[in-house]
């Protein structure tokens, strides 16, 4: 084991004896290379003597006691406001358990506990009593799992010397006022809108003043953008008191009155909504404010009912703000934005999206310089208590695998809650690493305010029902401290109630908002007009040459060099541009046009099928080189990252990135199309429906490899049918192409409409075998002019056509190949490039032109219950004008395809032959 690994190893005894022995060897070489506790221990072990004549065995016991307090003190901490947990078989945490007397401890100087405490305490006993208060109070710390020794020591030093802030009288009163507004809002809603769902924050009310402190600390550190993600519990309170959504707007939503009548006229608050809408506790907003000392933008991301699913979206939004996309390469400043992720205690360990999201935290393409996680721990998930919902001691334990500091804090100790925010923000700024706060509280009511929780959680709710709310607890504390009087405390509460009552009275209860039509905005209904996307030959040729020019001394893999050199052929001889080449030419022209491109996915740098080669490796040094970062004329950046083996979190991240930076061509590529199954909730709840629900737009592009190549069920279908089932209201484009020039034009069209009212996502079934098929590859001339073609039809003699076949993607090329070999003027093949929105006008024009045709056949590779058939059949019936509409493809199956390659060939051949038979 090398020295770095030794230094980064956690300090533990017993099971890690091997580490301890190697540390001893390191100590013998350089005593200063190990921590001060280890220096003291090894000094005793090597000499048998202790300064001052203390017994060596006693000193070892003292060191073990100190280590236990730091490591396990949280187990005895006062971190539960009620329904306190009891532990058995606790580690030794008292001097008596180590046979240490007061005299033993008083005989040792405080520096044996910590050199940082030497000047503050006269002896080890006083210093250890200090540690008891620090580690076993209303804040519990966990950091022994952290491998980085610098981070671990920084935390110990801060916690033991600076851990608690001395609040001024004014700060205490402001905290009480904040809590009064939080509780006052909830109580007012509860009283005046009986039975209305709001998913109350009560029990973890401290969250709001904690967020206020986060934003203030961000302002102090010149962080001008804060991105917040949270589920529905407490969201209305955060909207009201952090984003300053007026009480009138919130109350109007409960009354079904148009809330936008009360939107601030100064433009400081932006709240979008879609035409079909969503429940109020899923909505978000953006606030521009100087409330915390500098100009800041605070965003609360919209979130569906899928709890934690918004976490990677917020991370992507944060990274988008941090990135600068000027020039060929993007650059990141982690202090441009801060991500704050608010989790539920049952959902944090229960939903895999959190594991995936935390795994992004230190990866170059996804890091955000340290996110702040706050778990609003109400000790129960719907009705399930912790012993039925997780296998860990704390909800936070899953974060230990990612080296994140963890702090548990009693939600009824508001000053402690603010202290941990100060610690978390200082740690983030020092190390750019995530930090986890477990805000341990309770839930005042049931899962929603109509639920009776005592049915399933009787013991907990016996305590909840008699437990005073936090503003009463803290108000009485301030009265006891002489900060204010009873009358002054009560006046604060009355003022809040009157403030909300005044807002309520300002709403005309008779102005009900009921839009049953829910019509799309005009720009959405119009769709995307066609646009010329050709690029002049000279520009393409120079771009191509730039991509084939490498730095002096850089040597790509020799076999790859020959492959890449063939990309000159379309410009110097009669060569064709294949799929990967067309894509890179498109991306190059897009960044030259000023739109940054960000492409991520598993192995996307090379491409799953070795087709892209956007990033090259020197075969001698391993050095990486990205040609698109060095082309001439680029006015925006190109970024490509091999993603972790994750779909849900990465798709969510890229969606968030594009929502925040609508000018960016944000592309996610699945390794195989069916891998997108793991991110289905992102397609269902965000990408396909966010505009209709929330007025949240994106132009994200999805590349999903799809085609039946005999590779079995999981490597054949990208589940085209799912995207078509979700297709409505021009919500996205779904395409399956058969031409590299059409791919080039479609990518450029997608980029053209970014950051406009016509922007929408693109779902593309990308090829596998067609990547190198010469029938798909096209000459340069098709790239220099024209536009995307939603249908492709070769020349035909309209009077001779008896049968029209419509097909997309690989099966269309299979049909095309057979017709090239065996021409048949009686069959007309329409290659349907765009499935949604269906180009009905183009199809209708062709069908009207071939009046002698008696049959329209739709050909697909997928089983009949999958693919595009059920989507397109009703459309074709309307267009057929009495002609027979016939299906050609696999029979209905529960699986996507057969598993045997030879069987596949026979089935595929039968589909083609049946379709081509008149």
3D structure, described in words:
The strands form 6 sheets. This protein has a 9-stranded mixed sheet with strand order 1-12-13-9-8-2-5-4-3. A 7-stranded mixed sheet has the order 17-14-18-19-21-20-25, sandwiched between helices. Strands 22-24-23-26-27 form a 5-stranded mixed sheet, sandwiched between helices. It has 918 residues and is α/β, with parallel strands linked by helices. Helix content is 39%, strand content 13%. α8 crosses α19.
Number of E-state strands: 27
Q: What's the number of helices?
A: 34
Poorly predicted ranges: 1-17
Radius of gyration: 32 Å
Mind describing the biggest β-sheet? 9 strands, mixed
The coarse silhouette is: globular
Strands side by side in the biggest sheet: 1-12-13-9-8-2-5-4-3
Amino- and carboxy-terminal Cα gap: 74 Å
Sheet-strand content, in percent, reads 5-15%
* Overall residue-averaged pLDDT value: 93
Content-based structural category: alpha/beta
| Helical percentage | 25-40%
Using brief descriptors, characterize the structure shown.
single chain, 918 residues, alpha/beta, nine-stranded mixed beta sheet, seven-stranded mixed beta sheet, 13% strand, globular, disordered N terminus, oxidoreductase
């Amino acid at each position: 084991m090398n020295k770095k690994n030794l230094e980064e190893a956690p300090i533990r005894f017993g099971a890690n004896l091997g580490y301890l022995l190697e540390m001893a060897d390191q100590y013998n070489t350089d005593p200063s290379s190990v921590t001060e506790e280890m220096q003291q221990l090894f000094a005793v072990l090597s000499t048998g003597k202790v300064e001052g004549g203390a017994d060596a065995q006693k000193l070892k016991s003292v060191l073990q006691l100190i280590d236990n307090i730091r490591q396990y003190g949280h187990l005895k901490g006062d971190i539960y406001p009620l329904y306190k947990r009891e532990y058995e078989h606790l580690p030794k945490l008292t001097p008596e358990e180590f046979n240490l007397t007061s005299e033993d401890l008083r005989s040792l100087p405080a520096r044996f506990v910590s050199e940082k405490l030497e000047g503050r305490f006269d002896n080890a006993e006083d210093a250890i009593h200090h540690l008891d208060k620090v580690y076993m109070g209303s804040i519990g710390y966990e950091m022994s799992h952290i491998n980085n020794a610098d981070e671990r020591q920084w935390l110990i030093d801060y916690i033991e010397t600076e851990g608690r802030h001395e609040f001024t009288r004014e700060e205490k009163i402001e905290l009480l006022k904040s809590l009064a507004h939080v509780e006052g809002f909830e109580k007012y809603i509860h009283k005046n809108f009986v039975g209305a769902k709001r998913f109350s924050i009560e029990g973890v009310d401290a969250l709001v003043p904690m967020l206020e402190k986060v934003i203030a600390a961000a302002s102090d550190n010149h962080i001008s953008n804060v991105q917040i993600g949270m589920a529905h519990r407490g969201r209305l309170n955060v909207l009201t008191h952090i984003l300053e959504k007026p009480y009138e707007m919130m109350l109007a939503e409960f009354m079904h009155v148009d809330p936008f009548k009360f939107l601030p006229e100064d433009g400081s608050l932006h709240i979008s909504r879609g035409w079909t809408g969503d429940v109020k506790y899923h909505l978000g907003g953006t606030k521009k404010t100087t409330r915390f000392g500098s100009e800041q933008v605070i965003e609360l991301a919209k979130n569906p009912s899928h709890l934690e699913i918004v976490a990677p979206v917020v991370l992507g939004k944060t990274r988008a703000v941090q990135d600068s996309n000027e020039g060929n390469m993007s650059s990141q400043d982690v202090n441009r934005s801060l991500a704050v992720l608010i989790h539920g205690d049952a959902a944090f360990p229960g939903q895999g999206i959190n594991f995936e999201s935390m795994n992004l935290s230190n990866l170059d393409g996804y890091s955000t310089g340290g996110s702040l996680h706050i778990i609003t721990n109400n000790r129960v998930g719907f009705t399930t208590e912790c012993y039925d919902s997780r296998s860990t001691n704390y909800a936070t334990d899953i974060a230990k695998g990612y080296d994140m500091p963890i702090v548990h804090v009693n939600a009824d100790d508001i000053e402690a809650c603010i202290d941990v925010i100060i610690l978390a923000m200082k740690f983030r700024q020092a190390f750019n690493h995530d930090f986890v706060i477990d805000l341990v509280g309770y839930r005042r009511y049931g899962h929603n305010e109509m639920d009776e929780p005592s049915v399933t959680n009787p013991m907990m709710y016996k305590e909840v029902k008699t437990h005073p709310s936090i503003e009463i607890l803290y108000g009485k504390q301030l009265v006891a401290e002489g900060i204010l009087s009873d009358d002054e405390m009560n006046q604060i509460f009355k003022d809040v109630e009157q403030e909300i009552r005044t807002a309520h009275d300002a709403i005309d209860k008779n102005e009900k908002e009921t839009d049953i039509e829910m019509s799309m905005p005009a720009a959405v209904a119009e769709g995307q007009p066609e646009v010329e996307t050709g690029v002049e030959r000279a520009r393409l040729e120079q771009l191509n040459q730039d991509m084939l020019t490498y730095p002096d001394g850089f040597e790509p893999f020799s076999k790859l060099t020959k492959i890449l050199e063939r990309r000159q052929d379309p410009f110097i001889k009669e060569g064709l541009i294949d799929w990967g080449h067309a894509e890179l030419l498109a991306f190059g022209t897009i960044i030259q046009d000023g739109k940054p491109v960000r492409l991520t996915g598993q192995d996307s740098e090379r491409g799953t099928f070795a087709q892209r080669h956007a990033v090259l490796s020197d075969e001698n040094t391993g050095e990486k080189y990205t040609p698109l970062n060095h082309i001439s004329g680029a006015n925006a950046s190109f970024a490509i990252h091999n993603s972790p083996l994750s779909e849900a979190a990465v798709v969510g991240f890229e969606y968030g990135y594009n929502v925040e930076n609508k000018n960016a061509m944000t592309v996610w590529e699945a390794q195989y199309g069916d891998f997108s199954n793991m991110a289905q909730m992102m397609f269902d709840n965000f990408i396909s429906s966010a505009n209709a629900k929330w007025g949240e737009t994106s132009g994200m592009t999805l590349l999903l490899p799809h085609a039946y190549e005999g590779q079995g069920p999981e490597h054949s279908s990208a589940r085209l049918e799912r995207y078509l089932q979700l297709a409505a209201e021009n919500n996205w484009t779904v395409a399956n192409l058969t031409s590299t020039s059409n791919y080039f034009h479609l990518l450029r069209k997608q980029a053209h409409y970014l950051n406009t009212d016509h922007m929408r996502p693109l779902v593309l079934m990308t090829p596998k075998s067609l990547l190198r098929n010469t029938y798909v590859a096209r000459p340069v001339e098709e790239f220099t002019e024209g536009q995307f073609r939603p249908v492709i039809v070769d020349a035909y003699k309209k009077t001779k056509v008896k049968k029209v076949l419509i097909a997309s993607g690989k099966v269309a090329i299979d049909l095309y190949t057979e017709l090239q070999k065996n021409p048949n003027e009686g069959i007309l093949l329409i290659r349907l490039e765009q499935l949604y929105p269906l180009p009905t006008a183009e199809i209708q024009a062709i069908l009207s032109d071939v009046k002698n045709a008696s049959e329209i056949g739709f050909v697909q590779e997928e089983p009949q219950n999958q693919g595009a058939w059920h989507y397109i059949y009703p459309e074709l019936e309307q267009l057929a004008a009495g002609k027979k509409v016939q299906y050609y493809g696999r029979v209905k199956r529960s699986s996507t395809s057969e598993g045997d390659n030879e069987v596949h060939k026979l089935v595929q051949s039968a589909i083609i032959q049946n379709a081509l038979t008149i």
